[in-house]
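User: Let's play a game. I give you a shape written as tokens, and you guess the letters that built it. Ready? Here's round one.
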């Protein structure tokens, strides 16, 4: 039974994971090493693998058109936060976001102020020239 080790790139489907397996190949003529990447669909009965995990799969009977592999074990897990939902921002992230937006808006406000001053000086010059 063949086994392959790869990184999970998708786990959105129920009981199915998609992983990429990289292998190094040497060109027969030019003797240069290069990497070949191939995607495999594998059966994950317990939905335990997540995106970024390194897993080992083994060949099995065809379960669908694309799934002919099954998940054997998770070699290493991706560092993912389970306790905190992604939509919740911490206070420091909010402060950082506010600072960056202020920095982006500051040059725009200064440019507008300079435009207004230029218009005022042009208006005053035209009024002086008329009188």
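Assistant: Ready! My guess for every position:
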């Amino acid at each position: 039974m063949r086994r392959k080790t790869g990184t999970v790139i998708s786990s959105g489907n129920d009981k199915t994971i998609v992983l990429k397996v990289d292998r190094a190949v040497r060109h027969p003529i030019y003797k240069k090493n290069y990497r070949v990447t191939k995607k495999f669909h594998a059966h994950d009965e317990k939905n335990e693998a997540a995106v970024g995990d390194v897993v080992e799969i083994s060949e099995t009977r065809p379960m669908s058109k694309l799934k002919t592999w099954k998940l054997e074990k998770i070699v290493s897990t991706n560092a993912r936060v389970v306790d905190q939902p992604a939509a919740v921002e911490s206070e420091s992230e909010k402060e950082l976001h506010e600072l960056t937006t202020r920095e982006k808006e500051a040059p725009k406000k200064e440019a507008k102020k300079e435009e207004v001053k230029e218009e005022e000086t042009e208006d005053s010059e035209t009024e002086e020239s008329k009188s």
